[in-house]
Amino acid sequence: MELFDLSGRVAVVTGGNGGIGLGMAKGMAKAGATIVVAARDAAKTAVAVKEIEKCGAAATAIAVDVLQEESCRGLIADTMKAHGRLDILVNNAGMSIRKQPEHYTLAEWHTVLDSNLTSAFLCSHAAYPAMKQRGGGKIINIGSMMSIFGAPFATAYAASKGGMVQMTKAMATAWAKDNIQVNAILPGWIDTALTRRARQEVPGLHESVLKRTPAGRWGVPDDFAGIAVFLAAAASDFITGAAITVDGGFSVQG
User: Fold this and answer.
1) Percent helix, strand, coil in the chain (nearest 5)?
2) Has 157 been annotated as catalytic?
3) 203-234 pLDDT tens trace
4) Is 53 a domain residue?
5) Torsion angle of alpha carbons 172, 173, 178, 181, nearest 10°?
6) What is the model's pTM?
7) Which residue range(s) make up the domain with 132?
8) Domain with 27 in it: what CATH number?
9) Is the model's pLDDT at 254 over the cut of 80?
10) Of 28, 29, 60, 157, which is the active-site residue?
11) pLDDT digits over 102-122, tens only?
12) Which of 62, 76, 100, 84 is nearest to 202 (CA)?
């Protein structure tokens, strides 16, 4: 269907070598997009590129350190040099440090905020001129259930993901005139390396998630293929500033 066809489009996915990022990349690849996997771990990225290529699309790897402004700008410049265009940016790179708020150091606070929120600003800031020049684009920011809820072990993470939603709304209003749609996805509890560590660190988390999620299971990265295609494609051209939950009903369960 033309509304969901990404043929000829180029998508950059930060942190696209695993978890939700890879699930989104594979979905867009199956819809015809060329994927740029932007991450630090070269070996892991090489494996991800091969997985994406099996979906029938071209994929390339570009190393990036999203904590560094020049690296983020280099990512966009290298994408333009390699592919001549940039249509879609997925700001997926992120991490967490799980502690009670009184136990955070200032350095840990900055690491989480910079990794999750500032990085998305830097990459979006770098991508804007290329998208504007082409006459439009799509930016997809990855928030979290912690954009909505609080948790005693996720103060910095929740602050960064709450900020992601508000930044999404602000960018959406600023760049609508340039035909750039900016939206956020709020994943629920998804089975990834990040949440496997969380289950080791937070007693009872697995049982609690299953009890509260109407779908009765943890999500998997492939659950994000469809929403990625939708928000990257013409089907969502009149949707901007939205924060869409992908959580098996977790956020609506009382």
Assistant:
1) 55, 15, 30
2) yes
3) 888 898 899 899 999 999 999 999 999 999 99
4) yes
5) 20
6) 0.95
7) 2-190+219-246
8) 3.40.50.720
9) no
10) 157
11) 999 999 999 999 999 999 999
12) 100
